[in-house]
Amino acid sequence: MMIRNVTIYGLFETFDYNICFGPEPLTFVHSPNGYGKSTLMRLLSSVLKGDAEETASVPFSRLDIGFDDDTTLILENGRDGLTIQMQKTELEQILDPSEVAEILNVVYISSERLTVRKKDGRLVPALESYASELADRIRLAADHSELLPVPKEGRKEYGDDELVFWCKNLKAKLDFLNEAGFEPEMPAGYRFPPSRYEVAEYREDYTELAFSLSEYVDRNYTLAESIVVYKDIVNGLLVNKSLFIEDAKMEVRMDSGISLPLGRLSAGEKQVMIMFYCLLFHASPGSLAIIDEPEISMHVSWQHRIGDILTDISRLRGVQMIVATQSPQVIHDRWDQARELRVESA
After folding, report:
1. E strand or H helix at 16
2. Domains, in order of start, for the chain
3. With contact defined as beta carbons under 8 Å apart, do 96 and 87 qualify?
4. Percentage, residues of the chain above pLDDT 70
């Protein structure tokens, strides 16, 4: 589900805004300072995450969020508290915050993204926290590298030629997974992909192996793809150094070979690594990603490239992105995807 429009009334008892989103998955929202752009982004996030307390703390009178299935989420923040309802045509349904949270998965990347708050309340460096999180996910995948049997019920039947072609396709995907450090426990004595002769001779064995490998690929492909794409993006931006993810460890090395602690990276380098990590590893397909001020600490040359990178990620993952920015360099040549917050007195 995608958001098609957002209308807010009485923000700070001063502003009314209406934002209409086009067919592209990426939209930039821009305005001068003090117009409530960041507040509106936080509000959208808190609403769609079902955080009623945070939502009610923002001074606004009404917020309408229209979706591409012709439904509209309507929130009214009055003296009697917050009321939420979902409207379609003439029908209205009262919702509680927990039901709102089920509408859409939201990833909110705030402008204060260099630290994250742990469950115990501690603030810790975000990049180191994400490196530890990724290590845990890679180790978990490595601990479950065994091939699992796939029930025969409902499986597609393959002819010899189809099975040979499918196995070649699976081998290409396994090679891609190997780039990210993922490798299944292959049974001894089997060559993969098999030749036509081997398929004819051991059809049942190779059929079972192919289905098990397909399940392994499906189980690990998104994580492996995220790792490969993340390294490609970051290494396309870094200068005189490169990002490596090996043995479940995220490491940056200078071209001279010296390992550089993540905490010693520049502010801009940390910003890009944090932002693109959140988009690739936290935003599931069909999510909404809200990014506030991606330009922080970035050189103009990097800002010019952000739009293309965000577009590639949004299309790869099927993620809608709303990017709040004050930088024309970030919007660059995508002004048809930009929406300005225009002031109208409430």
Report:
1. strand 15-20
2. 1-105+285-346 (3.40.50.300), 148-221 (no CATH)
3. no
4. 99
Write out the DSSP string of 251-282: EEEETTS-EE-GGGS-HHHHHHHHHHHHHHHT
Residue 270, CA distances (Å) to 70, 231, 250, 286, 297 in order: 40, 14, 13, 26, 9
The helices-and-strands tally (H runs, E runs) of the chain is: 10, 16
pLDDT of residue 88: 85
The rounded distance, in Å, linking the Cα atoms of 21 and 339 is: 8
- Burial class of residue 331, CB neighbours in 10 A (0-12, 13-18, 19+): buried
The pLDDT-based confidence of 344 (bands split at 50, 70, 90) is: low
pLDDT in tens, 136-147: 999 999 999 999
Measure the CA–CA gap between 345 and 209, rounded to whole angstroms: 66
